[in-house]
Every structure is written in structure tokens, then in C-alpha cells.
Design a protein that fits this description.
3 helices; globular; mainly alpha
Length: 66
């Protein structure tokens, strides 16, 4: 995935969260993919995306009773 692809995906996710979020599971899945790419490439994970990942993970853990 190129940096342009990552930028596009991040912009899409941010728009989804700011507007009608739609399927939060899809957003979480795509966010995990993006951040996995950052980590695999040894790039620093943007703080706001790491927080978003943590918040979504916690939300789904609460909703699933875990």
C-alpha cells in the first residue's frame, strides 16, 4: 500500500466517523489494516489513529461483554 493509498483510506475513515458512521465494524477493520501497514513498514502510527483504534476496540469489547 502506497502512502497515497494510506492517505486516502485515512481520509475515508475520518469522513465516516465525522458524518454518518455506518458500519463501525467495517471502520474498525479498515483502521486495523492501515495501522498494521504503518507498523509493518516501521512508520510511526499517528497518535489520533492509535487513539481511534483503542477507542473502537474498547467500545466493541464492552458491547460484546468482554
Amino acid at each position: 500500500m502506497t502512502m497515497d493509498d494510506l492517505d486516502t483510506e485515512i481520509a475515508y475513515l475520518m469522513n465516516q466517523l465525522e458524518g454518518e458512521p455506518g458500519d463501525l465494524h467495517e471502520i474498525q477493520f479498515r483502521l486495523h489494516q492501515i495501522l498494521s501497514t504503518f507498523r509493518a513498514e516501521g512508520m510511526p502510527v499517528p497518535e489520533n489513529l492509535a487513539k481511534m483504534e483503542k477507542d473502537l476496540d474498547a467500545r466493541f469489547a464492552r458491547n460484546s461483554g468482554g
